Amino acid sequence: MSKLQVDQIRSFNRTVTRRIGVLEDSYLRRGRPLGEARLLFEIGPEGAGLGALRSRLGLDSGYLSRMLRSLETHGLASVDKLDGDARSRFATLTEKGRAEHAAYDALSDDLANSILEPLSPAAQDRLVAAMAEVERLLTAAAVTIGEEDANSADAQQCMALYIEELATRFEEGFDTSKGNSVSGSEFIRPHGSFLIARLDGSPAGCGAVRMLDAATAEIKRMWVAPSARGLGVAGRMLHKLEEIARELGAQTVYLDTNRALREAQSLYKRDGYAEIKPYNDNPYADHWFAKRL
Amino acid sequence: MSKLQVDQIRSFNRTVTRRIGVLEDSYLRRGRPLGEARLLFEIGPEGAGLGALRSRLGLDSGYLSRMLRSLETHGLASVDKLDGDARSRFATLTEKGRAEHAAYDALSDDLANSILEPLSPAAQDRLVAAMAEVERLLTAAAVTIGEEDANSADAQQCMALYIEELATRFEEGFDTSKGNSVSGSEFIRPHGSFLIARLDGSPAGCGAVRMLDAATAEIKRMWVAPSARGLGVAGRMLHKLEEIARELGAQTVYLDTNRALREAQSLYKRDGYAEIKPYNDNPYADHWFAKRL
DNA sequence: CTCATTACCTGACTTTAGTCAGGTAATTTG
DNA sequence: CAAATTACCTGACTAAAGTCAGGTAATGAG
């Protein structure tokens, strides 16, 4: 992280927030307070629950309530009871509200066009490609990976999704009872550890280590949610797991994998793992790897 | 401008304003209203005139006055008479204010680091490169080119800078009286036209056309400010001038150039101009070009 | 069935941001 | 030198944004 890199990022922040921010402001107000405009946009044609709106926009409950009332009195939205829980309420746009939403949508398009329009087609392509790259990498940078309790609800959810994926991807299917599954307590220090990757708070992947003997660790349950793939999450996860293995006293790390998981195999090889003879009798394993730390 | 491009830009705007905006907010407030924080930052260690602050931050005179008073009462800044014009005043940071500024500066660096830190070195390089590209192209997109009065102060200023540049770049120097200079009135419709490129309001380049005869136009005075080079401004300028020439009835466009202006020559060639025999006796011209519209 | 919790609402605030109509002193212009 | 202009200040506003301390009805836990 050189001074030059940091300066480039700071300069980018200034330029982009200035150029885009100013445009957004002028394009997206439509004579309405920005808060209400955002709320209208966030409700969207499909409607949204109040709780979801509150958390997405980071609003105080009272503030949201008042803004919704304002949208209602302007005939733009209606708030009704949600079937199921009579406490929860659900906001929907009226006909007029949907028209406003469509207008905002069109303005957003205009805004994007106003950025592209002055550029030559080649420059347009370059801008769009660079934007995609920035977006992808900013998202990647927003992924956090931390040690968490292997028995937490989020951990269980990740594991369930992981198993579901194995079941669809393994040619032979996947039966939980047959895999040499390991209980959550094996992934708690000092026996092991469990990592969860999160993007904006929601789980986006997991990974676990446990000690096989005093000098050997095994990595298991490495999984990245489809929405977070291509961001280098698996690589970071693997490094963190190795670091923990080292802390726990391991000098060597083992892991096994199924032949269907090709991207996993190439990750392991890239990271310095070498294929070894089977070190277990996992019926779903086709390849076994080891790496000296 | 395909739907896909527009969608990518909208998605970029959302992601960047969310990720960067939220970070900036939390990093850069330091328990102070954002307006005051920005003002403090904008005054900077060197201080700044109130007029400059007003225009840079787009503030109402009364509002700025009050915010400065607030900074003063918190012991962060002081406002003194500027020597020269006793009406103008100049804001400076106190010791304490400079410390705050340094803290903001450090936080800005932290923010940038917090974005880079989770990424691998290779990804860091890609992010920084993509950010530079986005910034460059967004700046390019913000350049406007429009017809203006060739006798306006800004036009004269551009021309003066243009001539200054010729004087330093031509091996033989440049003497205004010898060049077949053309008065501003030649660049007024229906004889011709004058374009000024602007970035955030300030002139960043110019270009002119005039009719040599009923079917032939000549392009002159093409110049782009050093700060706006590499953004494709010259190309856009050239196209606009050709468009105007067409409107004025031209079927052919002529132009001449000095051998020292190599980037201009390559632009003309790229744009379809072919070298021709001298069509004038401009002592500074080494190459003459023509293009059929 | 009781009590705590949840999901939302209401009223009463405060702070921030921003505008507008004058005012004063210094300076420039004709 | 008078009149206009400039550079800033002051007071009196408004609107938007956000916070806080209670409420109420529905729901869930023991």
UniProtKB/TrEMBL annotation, chains A, B:
Keywords: Acyltransferase, Transferase
SUPFAM superfamilies according to UniProt: Acyl-CoA N-acyltransferases (Nat), Winged helix' DNA-binding domain
Gene3D superfamilies found in the cross-reference section: 3.40.630.30, Winged helix-like DNA-binding domain superfamily/Winged helix DNA-binding domain (1.10.10.10)
Record's keyword annotation contains Transferase: yes
Keyword Transmembrane helix assigned: no
Molecular function in Gene Ontology: acyltransferase activity, transferring groups other than amino-acyl groups; DNA-binding transcription factor activity
Domain N-acetyltransferase: 143-293
Official protein name in the record: MarR family transcriptional regulator
